[in-house]
Amino acid sequence: MMTVTGVGVALPGADSATALATASRPGDSVEPAAVLGKKGLRYKDRATQLGLCAAQRVLTDAGLLADGELTVDGTRTAVLVSSNLGNVDTVCRVVQTIADEGTHGVSPMDTPNASSNIIASEIAIRWGLKGPNLMLCNGPASGLDAIRWGTALLRSGRADHVVVVGVEPDNEIARRLVGGPLADGAAAVVLERAEAAEARGATVRAVIGAHTRGLDVAGTIAELAEVESEPAAWYAPAAAAPALSQGLPVHDLAAVWGELSGALGVVQCAAAVGALDAGADGPMWLVAGTDSDDGVATLVLRPPVPAGARPAAV
Amino acid sequence: MRVPIIGVGAVASVGRDADEIFANLCAGRGGLGPMRGFDGERYNGKQLFEIDDRPEPGADRPLRATEFLLDAVAQAAADAGLGDDLSGVPVLVGTGLRELRSAELWWRDGAPFGADRLHFGTALRERFGTADTLTVSNACSASLYTLALGADLLALGEADTVIVAGVDSITESMHGLADRVQPNPPTALRTLDVNRRGTILGDGAAAVVLRGEQVRWPGGRLWGKLRGVGMTCDAKHPTAPDPVQVAEAMRQAHRLAGTRPEDIDMVLLHGTGTPLNDLVEITAYGEVFGEAAGRPVLTGIKPMTGHTSGSAGLMSLVTTLQVMATGKVPPLVNLEQPIEEAAGLRLVRGQEAKHEVGLAQVHGFGFGGVNAVAIVEGS
């Protein structure tokens, strides 16, 4: 059984799962220096800084970090980051500078940021996370894909703890590319096997159910319905709503935060856990991607199983 | 684990398909040439390993990486007898630079481009009807990372067949940032040479088709079997590699494969030709192989293909499978004086070598300290 054992949130005005689950509009923008301290932030791009904020909070929330020290084996801890726009601004800015001034105008400090996996590698560097390190840039469904592939790393025994981060920065270049303002924030979850969570005394916040990936919303949901019990709530983009069962709450997080792009699925997970923490009914069915995208991913989050209700041997 | 590899495809500066690439590599013919898509006036380094498909010199167009990828995937699918309908087949793409070259042309020149083409799922769906695609942007080890994910997916029983691919087209930002700090840029890529002066980027794409171990399929060629892929992260420095986790990736690959260094007949090096990469790679190799370090032959393809970034790992894997099929090993061209740390090693130099390879080790290391090592055996 795969579980969520921690949530980290760094969205404007929301710094926890609870704040995310109850927010109705964005607040003040995230100040990374206030979360992380000023040291070492100078040449890191905005996406990396936001990702580090969410990562620090999720590691702390999950109990993987205490007094600045990792409490588990860093070589058994994987990092998956999902972002589509992460370093697009750096790349476009550099190519414009070369056109305007030649290469002497560019800063060598931009070199690490020209590689899209800078967010995932900086998170690994900051806390010594030496397990598999993956940067997913997979379009609208990318955030839920990251959760799915995070559980795959656990199931295949490649890691015991997986930090999944979804992040999208807001800037002029990214806005022009997606056609509107972005969330300028990040969310993160820690995934672990139930046994690993129990062994270190961690609190299970949600149980990860089935996932599907397909060409359209109706088809992927129908596939999910074959193996999962009816949802109590949806987390889905507005454009997916017509295909969802009626009469249930539908949380369209982009309506609150702006374009979430590759962060969406992870923000959905964080918000759903925040709702479960507050006693909301489950299961939650999460949908990222719509019929007009290249693919649709779904994922089910269930409330944690009370200790006494668990079968003796699984 | 013995995951059958039943199809291969590739495109690079040195050839438009896997066979042409391999023939040129064995002949020692490289693809370095004057830059075709960028303005040469702006750079010290005016040579790249490009795929020559631009409309005219100095002019560029968007979505070349996407085209390279579709080409390599189509080749691999055809080789495996899958055809053009891949609706039930996950396609996992490793890349360093995604379609960031198109983003550059969009921002600077107003070329048509949208966020839906930054990743490759949109084009893969249009061409092959895929529903389950993944773009992993893991720098220069990206396609060996997706190789590991693909093998895991089969082992977990989530698919019968998986296509794993790697692709990159050179971005001007990446070339320009490297050029900025190279007033005297390399005129050749010299893996393990004392006079190596850095890497030179290349365009490329490669793909392989993996089948589940228990799955029976009608006919088709068995290229080889994937035994294991190790993946680690340095967690040390954003751009400089660290020998500790590079060595650990090799050890992990052997643990997963159930093999030992002394079983290896050939090592396909990452070999970027930068002073630090080659030193770290050969140091870690020496540490892991110990007394067996002098046993396998060592070679690399980047002096002829250039550093094809996200596709580099799979390009090396496809080359390895062809070595196994033919007994011919392409040479490390441009290697005149090996570094001291490589003394006593069986470097393939000058011209192709005849060598029977039953088990090989393939390296891929990247920015961000992402390391991946694959062990593959012949059919």
From TrEMBL, chain A:
Cell membrane is among the record's keywords: no
Pfam families recorded: ketoacyl-synt (PF00109)
SUPFAM superfamilies (alphabetical): Thiolase-like
Keyword tags: Transferase
Annotated Beta-ketoacyl synthase-like N-terminal domain residues: 44-168
Top-rank lineage group of the source organism: Bacteria
InterPro entries (alphabetical): Beta-ketoacyl_synthase (IPR000794), Ketoacyl_synth_N (IPR014030), Thiolase-like (IPR016039)
Keyword Repeat appears in the UniProt entry: no
Protein name per UniProt: Beta-ketoacyl synthase-like N-terminal domain-containing protein
Natural source organism: Streptomyces virens
TrEMBL record, chain B:
GO MF annotation list: 3-oxoacyl-[acyl-carrier-protein] synthase activity
UniProt xrefs under Gene3D superfamilies: 3.40.47.10
Sorted UniProt keywords: Acyltransferase, Transferase
Keyword Disulfide bond carried by entry: no
InterPro entries cross-referenced by the UniProt entry: Beta-ketoacyl_synthase, Ketoacyl_synth_C, Ketoacyl_synth_N, PKS_Beta-ketoAc_synthase_dom, Thiolase-like
Keyword Transferase found: yes
PROSITE patterns registered for this protein in UniProt: KS3_2
Ketosynthase family 3 (KS3) domain sequence ranges: 1-378
Pfam families: ketoacyl-synt, Ketoacyl-synt_C
Enzyme Commission number(s) from the entry: 2.3.1.179
Similarity field: Belongs to the thiolase-like superfamily. Beta-ketoacyl-ACP synthases family.
The name this protein goes by in its record: 3-oxoacyl-ACP synthase
Protein encoded by which gene: cal31
